[in-house]
Amino acid sequence: MSEAPVAPRPASADRVHPVDLDLLVTPPRARTGWRVLPARVLAMCAVELQKLRHDRTELYTRAVQPALWLLIFGETFTRIRAIPTGGIPYLDYLAPGIIAQSAMFIAIFYGIMIIWERDAGILTKLLVTPTPRAALITGKAFAAGVKALVQAVVVVLIAAALGVAMTWNPLRLLGVVVAVVLGSVFFSCLSMTIAGIVLTRDRLMGIGQAITMPLFFGSNALYPVSVMPGWLQAVSKVNPLSYQVDALRGLLLGTPSHLLLDFAVLPLAAAAGIASASSLLGRLAR
Amino acid sequence: MMGNVTYDDAPEPRAVICTGLAYSFAETKAVDGLDLSVRDGEVFGLLGPNGAGKTTAIRCITTLLPVPAGKIHVFGHDAARERMAVRRLLGYVPQQLSADSGLTGRENVALFARVFDVSRRERARRVEQALAAMDLTAAADRLARTYSGGMVRRLELAQALVSAPRLLILDEPTIGLDPIARTNVWEHIDIVRAATGMTVLVTTHYMDEADQYCDRVALMHRGRVHALGTPDELRRGLAERLGTEGPLPTLEDVFRDVAGSGLDDQAGDFRDVRSTRRTASRVG
């Protein structure tokens, strides 16, 4: 077709037999409509699990902090009995809060990975695939959810080992899975949104550090909302972590909670997060 | 200078048509009225020094950047309006080493099979073929972080090939590689092209590579194409114009001729150089 075809070069010596490339000339059939989103989410989650399988260091090191919270803070405050827990041991009360916290810590720094992937060219290449930006962000957010979920299992096991009485009802556990994943979707999208604004790892690191503590202490993870001063109660009301902890507590311990409200707020927060992170993803593509 | 640009209108199908493409970062005009036409099935080289606008042009064609002025068509699809349709036709290898070092070679390729909707039934075989085409079968289950620079590039080619693209876009595919690895990467590009007939659009600042491996080249400088043709045509053209005897001038001579002086002063800004060096050091 072209006037000056490249001269045939001698085949490399290491190529013993010609390779069959029949599949590489037929383009795959494109998924369309609603099927694209679950396919992309699945692809991103698969990658996350593959990475975890190759390198479990992070899983172990990230288990240290929640273990210490439960072991030191939990055991001590169980003795002090300073916090009104509605009649259950403080360690039990604390465990769902620490599950939510460790999931949030993973998610809130997920944006750093997005920036790293941008700098490495990985994100750039994904942006040139038939994947709408919202689908890419949703995929990444659920991948963060999967990672947080694996971490949550570790924390649940630690808590169980410390004698926390939790439910083993499969339906309730399914609810726990949904709550952990949706919370992580929101916090990872918050992180990716900030990543889209600040664009560098150092700045995101600083902001991440600055907001995790207020999010954690401004929630019902450590103590009931009723003991907070008025202004902090207001913070807790708009903090999705509170709803996540409320749901986890209700499901795992059977304490009085507002499951309907929790499972209304969490998907809404997740959807809002996905929308804002997707709208800023273009800045990372530049 | 612009008289050198030949805009061919042969009736063959076109892989890429760019008309009047312009793109600016702040005050810098990265691409400034680019006209380009890549024929179906050819290896087309976009040449120029750092900062000539090659990468920006590529990023517009791959739909990574919007098209603020001008038009881009990829096999008849508008790059600004039919992004998804264009992306399905593309295999893209960016300048940076973009394989995920925490995954195995096979997993890296499988990810791209997944996001291009390769069916479950076909996935394993397709991934296998893409890896085999790049001679990576033996290393397929090793983590990519254990690969050499040349192997990573071949892995990225396998990632791009798994979706059977009609247009392969390579941004500086051999940057930072040693001469043997460079030849090896080009040999693999050739094998795939011979087997699949896909069009290849490649940017490089290695003029010797372009001379040897490209069917046609466009010399780009300050956001525009300053000369276009087969490497041979361009070199003969310059020899005739200069009236020199003996060995033909090189593509580099042609480039100096069309770009004129001041080449060295503005060859790439700080960011360009930094990213190039970073890639080079990661490959090295």
Automatic annotation (TrEMBL), chain A:
Pfam families: ABC2_membrane. PROSITE patterns: ABC_TM2 (PS51012). It is a multi-pass membrane protein. Keywords: Antibiotic resistance, Cell membrane, Membrane, Transmembrane, Transmembrane helix, Transport. InterPro entries: ABC2_TM, ABC2_TM_bact-type, ABC_2_transport, Nod_factor_ABC_transporter. The chain crosses the membrane at residues 93-116, 148-168, 174-199, 211-232, 259-281. Residues 57-284 form the ABC transmembrane type-2 domain. It is found in: Cell membrane; Membrane. It comes from the Bacteria. The keyword Cell cycle does not apply. The keyword Signal does not apply. Its main location: membrane. Belongs to the ABC-2 integral membrane protein family. PANTHER family: NODULATION PROTEIN J. This is Transport permease protein. It comes from Streptomyces macrolidinus.
UniProtKB/TrEMBL annotation, chain B:
The keyword ATP-binding applies. It is found in: Cell membrane. InterPro entries: AAA+_ATPase, ABC_transporter-like_ATP-bd, ABC_transporter_ATP-binding, P-loop_NTPase. Residues 16-247 form the ABC transporter domain. The keyword Nucleotide-binding applies. Keywords: Antibiotic resistance, ATP-binding, Nucleotide-binding, Transport. Gene3D superfamilies: P-loop containing nucleotide triphosphate hydrolases (3.40.50.300). It is a peripheral membrane protein. One of its GO terms (molecular function) is ATP binding. Pfam families: ABC_tran (PF00005). Belongs to the ABC transporter superfamily. This is ATP-binding cassette domain-containing protein.
